[in-house]
Prior knowledge:
By secondary structure, the protein is mainly alpha-helical. The chain has a single domain, classed as Arc Repressor Mutant, subunit A, CATH 1.10.10.10. The protein is 52% helix and 5% strand. The chain contains six helices and two strands; from the N terminus they run αααββααα. It has a two-stranded antiparallel ribbon with strand order 1-2. Strand 1 (55-58) and strand 2 form a beta hairpin.
Amino acid sequence: MKLSQKGEYGLLALLELAAQRGAGPVPSAAIAAAREIPAQYLQQILLVLRRAGLIRSERGPRGGHCLARPPAEISLLEAVRVLEGTTAPAPCAEPGAVPGCRQYDRCVLAGIWRRVDEATQAVLGAVTLADLARQEREQCSAPMYYI
């Protein structure tokens, strides 16, 4: 699986919302500035996340965005599927894929790609936005040692 720019920015936006949980709606501009995401592109990504039910948005002067569920209930697997559509490293590894290649019946790579996808899903499914937010807080609060 190769994460696209949309996927990376989407995960960063979700991570920012997880980090700001409880502070009220977070304006798009604040997310864009905190995570260095182009504001116009962020708007498109937030629309995708809202339509998928991962975030809620409020309009108005005190408006912004927040997670639709607690960060501990949103796995990276769910977020990546919303943003990327699949975790499969090759089309033949996607569930229910119709083999598009003539070599499929004797291809040893198809089985490997399915195993890679299963492992990717296991890793992403075991990590939540809460886990990442906690890890980020710990990394940012750790003392820096210079040599």
